[in-house]
Each structure stands twice: as structure tokens, then as C-alpha cells.
Design brief:
By secondary structure, this protein is α/β, with parallel strands linked by helices. Among the domains are: 5-117, no CATH class; 128-203 and 533-714, 3-Layer(aba) Sandwich (Rossmann fold); 305-395, no CATH class; 826-958, Barwin-like endoglucanases (Beta Barrel), CATH 2.40.40. Helix 10 (285-298) runs antiparallel to helix 14 (405-412). The longest helix has 19 residues, at 5-23. It is globular and about 90 Å long.
Length: 959
């Protein structure tokens, strides 16, 4: 019989759903029965019955997608029928702040089809163990007891052999939430004192330019604050793909007259809505930003008062050393790190308030009026006379000599008139912001670009202003997590007097200053097992083989990368765990997918994998990395457990992820999996007569025979009751008013009611939250005059660290992308895909229908023609390291010289399992190993060597 396309697709979709229902059992008696679900056989005769009964359900529960690493926290109404999740709809109960549009509705096509994805064939439902070679695909279903026993014994063996540092825990950044699942994992591996891979910089998400300039990187507010901007620049970003629930605020800002500028080499989905699309040559963004700064400075469009107070541009710099002038330079009794102004009010030198050497926590100038120009001569303590000038003078010369619009045009391909026009409109806007999020951090010289972008925001007084400033991302604090386990007055490594001081400061003295907090955080790294991803791969996975290659780095780099790494490790700036000379033996990763994400994963397979005696993973579905492992543990789906979705500052709500149905098969929540593993480790340690072993830093002992007791807080928590732990977190979370689980369940979320925005390892916004108002970053520094946690106490554009000086980066400059991957003519770029959150939806049968159904690379018409490649042809993309094959999409929106592949395709979706990272070298920039200078240092989730996979050198040919 005849059938049109719509009928065919409809019947196919319902046939697939019918088949999935045949293999999925209804929920067990218990919750499902209590909710009124029936286990009776349902008489479905054909797909039409399914369609009719789609509009009937047993109950509706508010939930979300808890541990998916999605920036947007969206609440969904989940419809349940016969113990199965039937479908979901957006939960639109968000209230609007004063004078701006509301957040409703929030969601995207991925969240709208999770009810389909959770029942797809790649879903894991039983523990399994490899019975063939790694990667052979031969698996055996085993019991939970056998699986956990094997993992526990492997961990105990490794700990006895060479300390718990040989146990490596990794949850990437994919597997995060604000609830008990994530917290429980972190606590177990803290108790084990294992090696914990710290992945913020390791996934390429660390805005190094922000930490170098501000001493912090959290710089965002609520997305409704974008509506208040008059001039929005989206710089190396594509929020139409990556901020789907929030993008409407940018469009709505245009309705009220704002300009939208998109700066990107390709004409992407955000650019089509822009007032201006500017497409500089790939990797030339710093030159463009500095040329805009040159226009603003030369035409006196900058805001003098802001520059004097909020930046280091008013601080005096010596002409002979190009370093800040210090009080100790001019007086034997002066402080060695007390920086100096020239005070025009008194016509003499003045100490810089709030700088590290001066020590106060305020940058308020009082009666001081720092000069922004002019040469003075000062007499040093030894009698020598030297010339000094404000840094602003040096910056002006720097910009005039190298970054006029005409000179920048030769580098960027953007005309001088366009550069001047954008710079002037930016400077004259009432408020201007730059949206430059995680994707912009993935370039080798992204720190230079960000330093230049922040310079633009500082010159125009937009940082710390509603609708203004550089925006990357920020988080709300979730202080309730810390209350699950009693930490006492402070960390174990602190002395009694230090703990008393900390207790006083936090309880009575108004809290730690930004600088005090950072000093404690830096000290803590000596006693933890945290290790940056890239230094772990460099030391233990064979990546020194490619990252030491001089041709893959800046050609002006004066010393080998190996020399920088050696110095950083010897000076304690960067940790290596396990310690040098000790090999990793157990790799336990949850939710993340290292062989998909790591650069050139073939190197890790060759060098790291043979060292590992046990590779165990926890996931909701099978991944490439799990396929290359030994034991895979099935995690419950997001609608099958209680979670608290991690919430970035975009949304002033904490979104609850309620358990809607029972876990599929034998899958369990990660809270339960972690608790059972802790119990098994303790049980096996006692049975084997093993108790104390050495920790990752080899500085203390760990008692394996008490791990479970500590994890449960001596019986306070049970692995079988994650809801109790989540309720405790919420009731101890002052940010949401200390309201518990039941209150959150009423609407699916809790509004933020209190946030100081003070110093924290991750959450700091730098702004106090006011209910009913939009939030923007860094208000405390600008309005309340708090000192920035930098060496100068200000937004700092001069970096005196010897490594920066010898590499010519003491001031922001433009540098070309290095030839990482070899001397090839094209640059491989990418971005976060529209059709998946990382790899989670990459094999979704629904999402694959909305694209080409397989990995695709986007190439320019010019480059395709030169290689005789047509649309739909298979191509081989290659570098000196490796290659992958994919279908070519020939697109006029792609710049010549550019090859685009959006991220997160599973390697198993490519020919021979050779995924898109095979040709990617992604060397870290050695300057990101630097330490011991103010804000230039490493600690967890702050800085460290970064993963830079963008602008890699490649070529392509027909396959």
C-alpha cells in the first residue's frame, strides 16, 4: 500500500518505541505500586494504540538531567505510565527579575528526548567484565558483588604495592552535580588519598587570561542581565548552539536597541542573527582586540577614573627593568612588594592600596590621584636615579608601535575602518559585554586573547557593571555539600593555631579576604592527590613524546618545554601524581570518556593502558573508553535517581532532579555504587589483614580498614538512601534558604535567596545577590572597592614573572598559533555540538536524524575544490600524529583554510575506531606551569597546563 513520508516516519518511530517496550520491564513493586502504576499486561494492538495512550499517564514528576555536563539547569515535567518514562515537557515556573524578560521556557531538544535515549540499546543495565582482550568486545555479565570485589582487591593491591597514589580517580567535568552522587565519590577518593585527575584545564575550559589578570576566572551573572547590555560581542563562541535556553536574552536585547557583534572565522548559527559579523583569520583575535584598544586609547575614549582605580595601568614602572616600582626600591625601610603611584594631588610617590605587599583589602584611593602619564625620575635606595612612568604610558607605546588598525588588518584580514567602527561603538555604549566562553579557552594562545579582551572591558569601565564585562561562566555556591561530613575547624594539614585563626575569620571576622583564601587553597595542593590532567598525561601516559616537540610550540619560546616542566615540578609549582618513578595501577573513571576527549588517544592506549592492572568505569551507557576497559558498572539514568543539577549563575534557581522511576535492570545510583565500593574495600582489607598504607603524596597513612565507616560518618549515611543525603544538603544550603527536598519537589526547583559572592575555590561571583535583580560579575571589586586577588590588587595587565618576560608576554601581545600536529596548510577547529551534550546523545537515533547521521567535517568550497572533494564524499583528515575519516560537508559558511568538526563523536562511530582526536596534538602552553608570583600559580580548578585542541594543523584528501 502507499505510504507518504510523514506516515513512514511516524510508524517507524512508534515501531522503535514498541520494540523498546518489549525489552524493558515495568518498575518493581514498591514505588511504582505506591504511585498507582500497574504491572498488569497492557493490550497494545498496534502503533495507533500507542499514539492514543500517549496522552494518558499515571503521574507527572519534576526532574532534570543531573550529571550531564550541561551549563543550563532546566526543569522538566516527566510523564510516567506503567512504570516507564513516557515523555517530558518543559517546566515553566521561573519568575522574571525586575525590568527584564523571564526565563521561560528552558530546555532543548536533548532534554526533550531523554525519555527515548534512556531506553536505547547502548544503555548499561548489568555489571559486566571483560573476558577477551581489551577492546575485543567480549564481555560477561557478573554480579555486583563480584564486580566490586574485583575492583576493591585491585585497589588494595595497588595501595600495598606503592601507596594509594597508584589509584587514579577521574570524573572529568562531565560527571558533576550539586547532590550526593558527586559528593560521595569525591569523599571516598579523598579518604583513599588517591590520585585525583583535575580536569578543568584538562578539558580546555580554563580561561587562563582571566586568572592571569584577575586572580580568579568566574565572570558571569544571570543570563537575563545580558538583556541590559547595549553592545554584545560574541567572541569565539556560538551560543545559538551552546546556550539554547539563554540565547533569547541576546535577541531580546536587540529588540530594545542593543547591537550584536559576532567575531568568528565561520558564519555560524549565531552570526546569522548579528548586526555585525567579523571574521578574522583563525588565531588572530588578540591582534584584533589590541587594535581596538589602540583606537580607544589614542582617541581618548577610555574612562580615566576607572582605569586609575581598578587597573594596574596607573602603577609606576621602572624604565630600566620594566618592572613595577616598589617602596623597597627607593627606601631601605620600604616594603619589597609595596607598589608605587605618582600622586598628582601631593606630587610625590604614594603606596598602592590593596597590593600584595601593602596588605590591605581595599583599593579605595582616598585622596590619592594616580597619574596616568608623564615621566618622573626617582632616586633609588642605593643613590642611583631611574626614570619611571605609569604603566599606561608603556601600554600606549606598545599599542601604537604594533597594533594600529592598519597593522592589525595585515594580520587579521579585518579592515582598519571596521576595527575603528567596532572600537568606537564599544567605547561609547552605555554598557558593553563580551561573551567568550569555554570554547574560546581551547586555543594555545587563548590567554593572550582574554587578556586583551579584559583590557577592552577595563578601558571602557565595563567590568563589574550590569550588562557589561567579559563573561565566561560562574557558579552559585552549594555550601550544603560540605556539611555531609564534619571537617572540623579546618583541613588536617593546618596547625591548631591556624585552625583557630580560620575559625575566627569565618565565624566572627567577616570571612577570609580573596587573597587569604587563595593562599590557603594554594598550600592545600601539597597535601592532596589532585593532579592536572596534562601533567598526568605528560608524566605517565607518554605525551612527553609529542609535547616536547619544539615545532608544536611557539617558535619564540626560548627554552624546551621539558625544561619548563622540570623547573615547575622541582619548585613545587605543579604536582605530579603518582609521584615520579611510581606507576599508576588502577584507573576508575565515572561518567567521563578519556579516549574520546584526550588528545591523540592512541598514545594513551599505547603507553598508559598497559600500566593499568584494572580499568573500571561507571556510566549510564557504553562508551569507547568503557569498551577498552576491564569492568563496567551500570549507573542509573537521571530519571531513576535523586540528584541536584549543578547550577551556573545563568539561572537563579537550584533545579531538583527527582527520582521518577526505578533504575533499569541492575543499574544503581552513583551514591549507592560509591558506598558499596567503600564497604567492599573495607571488607576486603579486613579479610586480608591490611589496614594502613601510604597516601598519594607519600606524606601520611590511610587506613583502608575504616574507609566505609568514615564514608558513612559512622552510620549517619547509608548508600541505600541518597535522598536523605540530598535533603541534608538542601537544608544546610543557605543559598536557597535552607529548604529541604520536599519543598524543592513542589515546583522542581528552589530559588536563590542569598549569595555573598565571596572567595571560594569555584563558586565566587564577586557580587552579592539581591532577589528580584539581575546578577553581573565583580560588583564587589568595583562598587565596594575590594582588592582583586592579584599581585597588584587590581586588574593586572603587566606580568613580571620571569617566564612571561622571557617569552615576550609581560604585556598582552598577539602570537600566531603554533604548528601543532606538523606543517600542514589547514587549521582544525570545532565547537560544542548542537545535537548532544558531549557524547551522551551522540548515538541517539533521534538526534542522528537531525544531522548527517555520522561524523561529518565542514570544509570550505575553496579547499574542497582544490582537493577535488564534493559534498558527501568521504575524506581523510590527517596530521603528523594520526588521521580519521568522515563525510565532508562542503559549506560556504566555512572560511578557506578552516576545517570544522563539532565535538564528542565516539571513536567507535569512525572507521577502525579512529576518532577526531587522533590527529590532535593539543600541547599545553609552558607558561601555564608557572608559579610563585601573585595570581600566577596552580591549584585545583584555578589554573594549570591546558588542553588546546583548536587550530591544530591538518590537511584532508578524499578517502
Amino acid at each position: 500500500m502507499g505510504m507518504n513520508r510523514r506516515e513512514f516516519l511516524g510508524r517507524s518511530a512508534w515501531l522503535a518505541l514498541s520494540l523498546s517496550l518489549l525489552r524493558v520491564a515495568p518498575a518493581d513493586a514498591g514505588e511504582a505500586a505506591a504511585a498507582g502504576a500497574s504491572n498488569a499486561k497492557v493490550a497494545y494492538t498496534d502503533w495507533q494504540d500507542l499514539y492514543r495512550k500517549r496522552w494518558k499517564w499515571d503521574r507527572v514528576v519534576y526532574s532534570s538531567h543531573g550529571r550531564a555536563n550541561c551549563m543550563s539547569a532546566c526543569s522538566w515535567s516527566v510523564f510516567v505510565k506503567d512504570g516507564l518514562v513516557w515523555r517530558e515537557e518543559q517546566n515553566a515556573v521561573y519568575e522574571a527579575a525586575e525590568g527584564v524578560p523571564d526565563f521561560n521556557p528552558r530546555g532543548c531538544q536533548k532534554g526533550g528526548c531523554y525519555s527515548h535515549l534512556m531506553y536505547e540499546p547502548s544503555r548499561l543495565v548489568h555489571p559486566i567484565r571483560r573476558v577477551g582482550e581489551r577492546g575485543s568486545g567480549r564481555w560477561k555479565r557478573i554480579s555486583w558483588d563480584e564486580a566490586l570485589g574485583a575492583i576493591a582487591d585491585a585497589m588494595i593491591d595497588a595501595a600495598v604495592e606503592n601507596g594509594t597514589g597508584t589509584i587514579v580517580y577521574d570524573n572529568g567535568t562531565t560527571n558533576l552535580d550539586f547532590g550526593p552522587d558527586h559528593t560521595g565519590e569525591v569523599e571516598l577518593f579523598r579518604l583513599l588519598a588517591s590520585t585525583n585527575i583535575e580536569s578543568w584545564a584538562g578539558v580546555g575550559d580554563m580561561p587562563h587570561g582571566a586568572t592571569q589578570t584577575w586572580g580568579m576566572y568566574n565572570c558571569e551573572g544571570t543570563s537575563d542581565d545580558w538583556f541590559k547590555s547595549d553592545f554584545i560581542i560574541v567572541w569565539v563562541g556560538n551560543p545559538s548552539y551552546t546556550r539554547i535556553p539563554d540565547m533569547h536574552f541576546m535577541h531580546e536585547a536587540r529588540y530594545r536597541g542593543a547591537k550584536l557583534v559576532v567575531i568568528a572565522p565561520d558564519y555560524n548559527a549565531t552570526a546569522v542573527h548579528a548586526d555585525y559579523w567579523i571574521n578574522p583569520r583563525i588565531g588572530s583575535d588578540a591582534a584584533l582586540a589590541l587594535a581596538m584598544a589602540q583606537v580607544i586609547v589614542s582617541e581618548k575614549l577610555y574612562r580615566e577614573d576607572y582605569v586609575r582605580e581598578q587597573t594596574d595601568l596607573s602603577i609606576l614602572v621602572r624604565e630600566d627593568t620594566r618592572r613595577y616600582l616598589r617602596a623597597g626600591d627607593v627606601s631601605a625601610s620600604g616594603g619589597k612588594d609595596v607598589l608605587q603611584f605618582w600622586d598628582e594631588a601631593s606630587n610625590r610617590l604614594a603606596d598602592v592600596p590593596g597590593c600584595e605587599g601593602e596588605g590591605s583589602t581595599s583599593i579605595a584611593l582616598g585622596g590619592i590621584r594616580p597619574a596616568l602619564g608623564g615621566r618622573r625620575e626617582v632616586t633609588l635606595a642605593d643613590g642611583k636615579k631611574v626614570g619611571v612612568r605609569p604603566l599606561f604610558d608603556f601600554l600606549r607605546e606598545h599599542l601604537d608601535s604594533g597594533y594600529t588598525p592598519e597593522k592589525a588588518a595585515a594580520v587579521t584580514g579585518v579592515s582598519p575602518s571596521t576595527i575603528r567602527r567596532i572600537a568606537r561603538e564599544l567605547a561609547k555604549a552605555g554598557s558593553a559585554m563580551i561573551f567568550s566562553s569555554w570554547g574560546a579557552c581551547k586555543h594555545y594562545h587563548s590567554d593572550l586573547v582574554q587578556r586583551a579582551e579584559i583590557l577592552l572591558m577595563a578601558l571602557t569601565a565595563n567590568q563589574g557593571k550590569s550588562g557589561g564585562g567579559l563573561r565566561v561562566a560562574a557558579w552559585w555556591e552549594v555550601d550544603g555539600q560540605r556539611s555531609l561530613w564534619d571537617r572540623g575547624a579546618g583541613p588536617d594539614w593546618m596547625s591548631a593555631s591556624e585552625k583557630l585563626k580560620l575559625l575566627y575569620k569565618t565565624k566572627v571576622g567577616g570571612g577570609l579576604s580573596w587573597r587569604e583564601f587563595e593562599e590557603l587553597a594554594v598550600r592545600s595542593k601539597e597535601f592532596s592527590g589532585n593532579v592536572p590532567t596534562m601533567s598526568f598525561l605528560y608524566a605517565h601516559a607518554g605525551y612527553s613524546e609529542i609535547w616536547d616537540e619544539p615545532e608544536f610550540h611557539d617558535p619564540g619560546q626560548p627554552r624546551p618545554t621539558a625544561a619548563y616542566m622540570k623547573e615547575a615540578v622541582e619548585k613545587g609549582w605543579i604536582p605530579v601524581r603518582p609521584l615520579p618513578g611510581i606507576e599508576p595501577r588502577v584507573y576508575y573513571f565515572t561518567g567521563m570518556n578519556p579516549l574520546r576527549r584526550w588528545p591523540a588517544p592512541q598514545i594513551a592506549e599505547k603507553v598508559l593502558w598497559p600500566k593499568l592492572k584494572m580499568i573500571a568505569s561507571v556510566n549510564t551507557k557504553m562508551s569507547t573508553s568503557s569498551l577498552m576497559g576491564d569492568i563496567v558498572l551500570p549507573a542509573a539514568g537521571w530519571y531513576e535517581r535523586d540528584l541536584l543539577k549543578y547550577t551556573e549563575a545563568y539561572l537563579p534557581y537550584f533545579v531538583l532532579n527527582q527520582k521518577v522511576v526505578e533504575p533499569l535492570g541492575e543499574s544503581k545510583s552513583e551514591w549507592e555504587i560509591t558506598g558499596l565500593l567503600a564497604k567492599k574495600i573495607q571488607e576486603r582489607a579486613k579479610a586480608r589483614g591490611i589496614s594502613k598504607v601510604r597516601d598519594a603524596a607519600m606524606k601520611a597513612e590511610v587506613d583502608l580498614s575504616t574507609v566505609y565507616d568514615h564514608w558513612t560518618a559512622n552510620g549517619k549515611w547509608s548508600e541505600s538512601d541518597p535522598r536523605a543525603a540530598l535533603d541534608h544538603i538542601l537544608k544546610n544550603n543557605k543559598v536557597t534558604g535552607n529548604k529541604g527536598y520536599d519543598e524543592a519537589a513542589k515546583t522542581g526547583m528552589l530559588p536563590v535567596v542569598h549569595e555573598e559572592g565571596g572567595p571560594h575555590a569555584l563558586w565566587a561571583l564577586g557580587t552579592r545577590y539581591q532577589p528580584g535583580k539581575t546578577v553581573f560579575p565583580h560588583e564587589r571589586f568595583v562598587k565596594e572597592k575590594e582588592a582583586w586577588p592579584t599581585f597588584s590588587g587590581r586588574q593586572q595587565f603587566l606580568i613580571e614573572h620571569p617566564w612571561f618576560v622571557e617569552n615576550g608576554e609581560s604585556l598582552p601581545v598577539h602570537k600566531e598559533p603554533p604548528k601543532a600536529g606538523g606543517d600542514h596548510p589547514l587549521l582544525l577547529t570545532g565547537g560544542h555540538t548542537r545535537w548532544s551534550i558531549h557524547a551522551i546523545w551522540r548515538d541517539s537515533s533521534l538526534m542522528l536524524q537531525l544531522q548527517r547521521g555520522e561524523p561529518a567535517v565542514f570544509v570550505s568550497v575553496k579547499d574542497a575544490k582544490a582537493r577535488k572533494v564534493g559534498d558527501g564524499d568521504r575524506v581523510r583528515v590527517f596530521s603528523d600524529l594520526g588521521a580519521f575519516e568522515a563525510v565532508a560537508k562542503v559549506a560556504p559558511a566555512v572560511s578557506p583554510g578552516q576545517v570544522i568538526i563539532y565535538h564528542a563523536w565516539e571513536p567507535y562511530q569512525f572507521k577502525d575506531w579512529k576518532g577526531q582526536q587522533e590527529p590532535v596534538a593539543a600541547p599545553f602552553k609552558p607558561l601555564h606551569l608557572a608559579g610563585d608570583y601573585g595570581q600566577i600559580h596552580y591549584r585545583g580548578i584555578y589554573s594549570g597546563p591546558g588542553h588546546h585542541p583548536r587550530a591544530q594543523r591538518v590537511d584532508f584528501v578524499r578517502a
